Amino acid sequence: MSKLRVGALVSGRGSNLQALLERSAEPDARFAIVLVASNHADAFALQRARSFGVPAAVVERKEYPTRAQQQQAMVELLRQQEVDLVVLAGFDRVVGTELLVAFPGRIVNIHPSLLPAFSGGLHAQAEALAYGVKVSGCTVHFVTETVDGGPIVLQTAVPVLENDTAASLAERILAAEHQTLPRAVDLIARGLVRVEGRRVFIDAACESKEMNSEVEQR
Ligand code: GRF
User: Fold this and answer.
1) What is the CATH number of the domain that holds 16?
2) Is pLDDT at 81 greater than 50 in this prediction?
3) Is 89 in the pocket of ligand 1 (CB under 6 A)?
């Protein structure tokens, strides 16, 4: 069975990428990471990609006259690898028209809060703590022109504890991210995700049937 071809855009440490790479290496995985591209040459995520034998590209802003041209370069790379789905796995820039037009409805992002709370910034965990919420978490959503505003695929809630610091809360949310992102990509790869307007439906009946038939096949 052919696998969904996933391209990941990254900017830093790449722990979410690692979770995706590990899931993609499992025998029942329905997706393959075929390209990792970073806007920072020193992103550790690039090393993680290489250690899995995945092509790792650097597309730095300073190499291009405009941000649009930089993003168009990413589009070309993703197209060369015949990518079906683009995953923003810790990508620290807003996705522009070039990517949105090239991959309509085929870009997902992981954000470290329960959207729509604490959207937009790079410090969602600290903002959640400062606001005093008792529950936060992570969200995987489709990417649209509204930053962090696209249809929500999956969310995982994480408690905020009384002795939390921004770092300890971020660590607890990150552990949830590492489960949630590969699961969302897996569901998309299995064709179980349907978008209707703002709402995303997951065909749970098919999911359990699929899982059962996999068990039978083993
Ligand atoms: C994660 O918290 C993710 O939710 C956010 O950026 C961070 C990336 O971490 N978008 P990593 O590079 O995957 O370790």
Assistant:
1) 3.40.50.170
2) yes
3) yes
